[in-house]
Every structure is written in structure tokens, then in C-alpha cells.
Amino acid sequence: MQRNNWLVAISVIVIIILVNNTAYYFLMKRSLESALNREMAAVAKQIEYSVEQSRMGAERFQDQIGRELRAVSIAAQYALDPDVERVTNNQLKELSEKLDVAHITLLKRTDDDIVMYRSSDENELGDGTKTWDPWFIAFNQLFEFKEVRIDWLGQTLKNFWSGPYEVASTDPESIYKWGYYYDGTTNYIIDPYVSYTMLADYENVTGVNSLINKSLASSETLLEVTVLNPATFAKGPFETIQENGAVQGHLLQKPVMYGTHTYESERDAENVAKAYDSGRVVTANEHVHGKHVLKMFIPVFAEERGINIVDENGEPINSYVLALVSDYQVIQKQLDSQFINIGLIIITVTALSLIIVTFAMRYIRQSRDRMVQMTQQTYVDEINSMFQAIRAQRHDFLNHVQTIHSLAELKKTQELVAYTKELTGEIRLMNDMINIGNPAIAALIRSKISQAESYRIAFSCSFGGLKRLQMDVKTLDMNRILGNLIDNAFDEVTKYPEGKREVELASTQTDNYVEFKISNTCEKAEQVAESPLFDAGFSTKDEDHQGLGLYIVKSIADKYKGTIQVFASEPERITFVIRLPL
Question: Taking Cα atoms as reference points, which of 40, 57, 56, 51 lies closest to residue 259?
Fold first, then answer.
């Protein structure tokens, strides 16, 4: 039984450790995820600032290219005849080489179109522009000496307008930046343009893509950074079919503006839209290409419109979404390590618990054996004592009979009554000791009876059913209870005259419990019953008493989950009732 209790205790300890460490595991998981989110947010903020600086630098670089294209246009105006009919394509080729531009095209206005009439690029000759919305509007505004104002990104200077880098309609594989100049001194718009090479070289050194690559190289967890156009993401491609059947894409409407988008999933479009519409960061925990990743979508809003991004209708927008993808395996590795640590802790604690239990059970077994030996020795001693008393009675029996006979012959009636009364009391006492049924308790009561006789205390006992009480550790604790209660009662009644020194002890036992009731004379019974009798150090006696007797009784009763009651059974009588479950 004791072994089973220990095993249950170990199981409870292991379960508590397991529950505690499991809770710690998930708290750690949440903490690591929060830390990764904070790290991603910090990196995202840094990248956002850097992207903005790089993007604004690229825009300023484009503006500078635009001013140079205007200077090239003015130089070409002085070099060319003001009448387009007198300008040749070869002149334009030579001039574009001298001015270090990719090509120069001259645009002539007709009744219903503006066509590319002369050009150093033969692919552009003869193409109309009336389908180039809104560029066609910009050309007409220039011919009408108006300042260009269109719903498209670009740079407006005096008699000049330049759009952003864009895919060429005549060569969809090439990207150029065009400048358009017209001051009325010629009958054509001068259109010099340069290739993307200049801006590409700039961006390779200080551009957004370069910054993203450096950020990825310096981070252990960051897998991918993407600058997304929230208005066109997952809606493209946005292309224009030219009159000659060529398909023209639009650089400013690209869904992926910078970086790469290889860790894509079906939920990306929803998360991008959610971040863009709400203006809040959106996170997603996903498995992509067999890899556990954590995604973060961060909306970025520029202070002014015109950041070289347009929506599906060509309208400029002032925001984009920065998408970051981090490797969740970093967290998983730490969690796996923690899981292993938890397992080692549980195994270690279990092993230590088993070792402790083994030694504890061995100690308990040895202690129990010692207790049994002590109890057996007490039992043997008490039986021997009773046998000695019985032999003594039998030895004195003849003497008692002769004394009674003599007193009867002499007709000493009073002496005969007194003698026989004393003799029957001794015999009754011996029988009561035998009837108690428990040698250890019988020995205690026998000693207390002798003590009561010396103190001239009327001590009466009544025991029933204790024969079923086994000799074990509980018996010794019961003796401690009875000993302290009897001593407490004796101490109290010795305060009073001999005629009031009364102590009664009764015991009953059932299948479920054993009960002891002791009552004694107490002039202030009600007051004493309400005092903290069971507190350590409390005593109603003189200063020589430590006040531990009733405290010990209460501790033992609590140990066996028993109950103890104290009350004034009469005005000058106090009663203690102790019940212990079996």
C-alpha cells in the first residue's frame, strides 16, 4: 500500500513537471514567434527607410536624366533644320551618337495623329501615337504650348516633358526614358531617349534591389524581400496592343516592383489587399515549397503622390506593400532543442524520484520493522507482567481465604467488608486490563492508574472493542494521544481538593473509526473550552508547562484525518472527544 502511494506521488510529480514544461514550451514558442515578428518589423522598418531613400535617390537621378534630355533636345534643335522635311534619318543617327543618347526621334503632327516622322531608329518610323494614352495628350499639350498636366508620372519643365522609364512600344524587350521638347521654332517635337543602362548601373550600386540583396545576405532568418504594387498584384499582366500588333507591357504597373517573389502562395493576394486597405501589418504562418515560413506584409505610404507606381487604370498611387519572408525553422530548431531539454529533465527527475523512493521505502520498512519489534516487546513485557500479577494472586489466594475465614469467625464484619472490597477491586482492575485487548494501551492505562492512585485521583476507565485494533504505528500514536490527554486531565484536577479530582476515560471502536472520550473536573470549563487550547505554547497552567501536550494531540489527529472536539459537558466539567478513522 505504501509502495503504491509512493508510485502515485511520483506519477503526480512527473505529470506536474510534464504539464509545467509543456506550458513553458508553448509560452516559449509564442515568445520566439513574437521575437521573430519584432525582428522582422525592425528589419522591415530599416528596409522601408532604405527603400524610400534609394527610391527617392533613383527618382532624383531620373529627374537629372530628364534635365539632360532637355539639354540634348535644345542642342539637337540648333543642329537640325526647323522643317522636318529637310531632316534626314542619317542626320539623326550622327547627332544621337555625338550627343551620347540611344536615339533621337522627331514627332510630326497630322490631322488626326502625331506620328514618328524621322528617327535614328528605323523601327519607330511611321508609327502613330494616338493610342498612347495619356502620352498622346501630353504631345498635344506641347504642340499647344501648354504645360503638360496628365494623370501619369513624369517630369514637366519649360517646353518639355519626360515620362518615367518604360517599355518601348516598338521594342518590348527594351526599356527607355524619353524626353519631349517643343518651343514652336520647329514643326516637330524633338524626342531624344536613353536606355535603362544608366539607371541600372546606378541601382546596382545604390538601388533598391542592391539594398534587398545586402539585407538578405546579412540576415540568418530573412529569406525574401519584395516590394509589391498593391493595386496590380495578382491582377496583371497589364499590356497594350499597338496598331502594329506589338504587345507593350508597362513598367510602372509591374506587380513586383523590386526584389523577387518566389515564396508565393494562394493567400498572398488576400494578405496584400488586406494590408493595403487596412493600413496595418498582416502576418501569415505558412508552408511554401515544403518550407515553414513566416510572412509579413507591411503597407508603406509615401508623403506625396508620384512614386513611380500606378494602378491598373494608370492612376498614380502613393503606396506600396513591403513583403518579408522569414525562415520559421530558426524557431523550430530552438523549440526542438527545448523539447529535448524537457525530455531530459523529465527523465532525470523520474530517475531521481525512483532512487529517492527506493531509499525512502527501505527506510520506512526498516522503521516499521523497528516499530513492530518495539510493539512486540511491549506486548511481551505486558503479558509477562499480567502473568506475574495472576501468579501472585494465585499464590496469595490461600492467604486471602484464611484471612477471610478468620475475620468471619471473629465476627469482624466491618473489617471483613473492607478487606473483601479491596481484594475484589484488585481482581476487577486486573480483569479490566485483560479486557482492553491491546497490550500497548493496556500498559499505558495500567501506569496511569498507578499514577492516579499516587495523586489520589478518582480515575475510571471503560474500553470496548479495542481487541480489533492491530499493533502498529497507529497504536503508538494513539498512546501518545491518550497519554497527553490523561496527563492534561491529571494536571487540571490536581488543582482542586481530593474530593473533586475526577477523571473519566471511555473508548469505543467500530468498523470505521475508534473514539476516545475523556472528561475531568474544570471549574471554568466553558471559558477553557473556548480558548486556543491546541495552539503550540498555550497553557492554562503555571509557567513551567510548555503548552505542547494538546498541540501534539491535535497534530496526530490531523495526521490521520481525524477530528477532535472540546466542550463543557457540565458547568464544572470539560470533555475531549477524539475520533480517528480506521
Answer: 51
DSSP-derived 3-state class of residue 449:
helix
Looking up cell 498636366, which residue turns up?
Answer: 149
* Three-state SS at 525: helix
DSSP 250: -
DSSP string across 89-130:
HHHHHHHHHHTT-SEEEEEEE-SS-EEEEEESSGGGTT-B-T
Which residues on adjacent β-strands are paired with residue 291?
288
178, amino acid identity: W
Kindly give the residue spans of alpha helices, DSSP state H, lying in 438-569: 439-454, 473-493, 525-530, 549-559
Question: In the structure grid, which three cell numbers stand for residue 363, read together?
Answer: 527506510
Task: Identify whether the C-beta of residue 512 lies closer than 8 Å to the C-beta of residue 582.
Answer: yes
Q: Please provide the size of the chain in residues.
A: 582
> Do residues 582 and 572 touch, judged by C-beta distance below 8 A?
no
Per the listing, cell 495628350 goes with 137
Instruction: For residues 527 and 541, give the distance between their C-alpha atoms in angstroms, rounded to a whole number.
Output: 14
Confidence (pLDDT) at 108: 94
Distance CA 214, CA 307 (A): 23
Q: Is 542 exposed, middle or buried (0-12, 13-18, 19+ CB in 10 A)?
A: exposed
- Position 473 scores a pLDDT of 47
Q: Is 51 helix (H, G, I), strand (E, B) or coil?
A: helix
Whole-number pLDDT of residue 514: 86
Q: Which of 117, 130, 123 is nearest to 80 (CA)?
A: 117
Looking from the CA of 437 toward its CB, the CA atoms found within 13 Å total 12
The pLDDT score that the predictor gives to residue 84 is: 92
The CA radius of gyration of the chain, in Å to the nearest whole number, is 54
φ, ψ (nearest 5 deg) of residue 547: 70, 35
Instruction: Tell me the C-alpha distance between 396 and 264, whole Å.
Output: 112
Quote the pLDDT of residue 179.
Answer: 93
Q: 185: Cβ–Cβ under 8 A, 6 or more apart, which residues? A: 77, 82
Cell triple for residue 43?
Answer: 528589419
Side chain identity at residue 403, one-letter code: T
Q: How far is CA 303 from CA 118, 299, 300, 317, in A?
A: 41, 13, 10, 11
Element housing 70 (H / E): helix 2-79
Nearest to 249 by CA among 310, 189, 300: 310
Packing angle, helices 208-218 and 2-79, rounded to 10 = 160
- pLDDT profile of the chain (582 residues), mean per 10: 58 68 66 68 72 73 88 93 93 92 93 91 86 85 88 82 76 80 94 82 69 79 86 68 53 79 89 90 87 87 60 72 83 66 71 75 73 61 58 62 72 72 58 61 79 88 67 70 90 90 89 88 88 74 64 87 90 91 80
- As a three-state string, the secondary structure of 253-314 is HCCEEEECCCCCCCCHHHHHHHHHHHCCCEEEEEEECCEEEEEEEEEEECCCCCCCCECCCC
Q: Identify whether 237 is preceded by a cis peptide bond (ω within 30 of 0).
A: yes
DSSP 376: H
Cell numbers describing residue 41? 518589423
